[in-house]
Amino acid sequence: MRRLAFLLRPGWIVLALVVIAFTYLCFMVLAPWQLGKHSRTSRENQQIETSLNTPPVPLTTLLPHQDSSAPEAQWRRVTASGHYLPDVAVLARLRVVESKPAFEVLTPFVVDGGPTVLVDRGYVRPEGGSHVPPIPRPPAETVTITARLRDSQPAVPGKDPFVGEGAEQVYSIDTAQIAALTKVPLAGSYLQLVPDQPGGLGVPGVPQLDAGPFLSYGIQWIAFGILAPIGLGYFAYSEIRARRAERPEPPPPAGEPGEPGEKSPAPKTVEAKLADRYGRRR
Fold first, then answer.
1. Which of 6, 64, 148, 226 has the most CB atoms lying inside 10 A of its own CB?
2. What pLDDT, in 10s, does the model give residues 232-255?
3. pTM flag (> 0.70)
């Protein structure tokens, strides 16, 4: 027990707590975070690949009523007939398309015999760095559009909608937030136009099918979580061995009595042992 008493010293206790906290973060926070991103990316890649190889379907088969959404069918191509609400428009700001800043133009679309959905008509480039450019109005007559189904995005905390340069502006395409802003009921999913559609603007491309490095990052955090306590155990074992080597050897047991006046040799000191090992200086 005396050999292990040094583990109760403040320095070792702090080190042990740091290793425990780091291991917890690796297994419970960092690895799940990266593995979760890998799962979401893989799921989205599969949805994109399916949409590229599947013909469009009527929107009402996936969004039959006003309150419906279809997260399992994201990126699926759909067709819809109806009309835009040209007097209602919202800009999604701080977007990046082809590595350049952009506004995405959002307009409600009333589907014949179906729900009212939010349509991402595409993007426009800001003028003068960040100013809203003139935006063409969508057609007011009945049209048929082809678009990709998209999931509603979560609202950005602390970033509320505002009116700037005569346009309602938001920081994410959150259909619930935009419905409350425009007073127009919207379905849970929204549409992103494909090229050459009525009312379309610049069309963002489909994301590349790349799983990214998230799986390898997740595995690395798991490995770090395993190695950290192993390293602590190794350092503790090394300290025990070093302390055991520094302990003085007990004196040899008394032997047979020698000649009168003969004394037992004194135990060697650490310096004497080192001298015997490496040779005395002459």
1. 148
2. 888 878 877 777 777 666 666 665
3. no
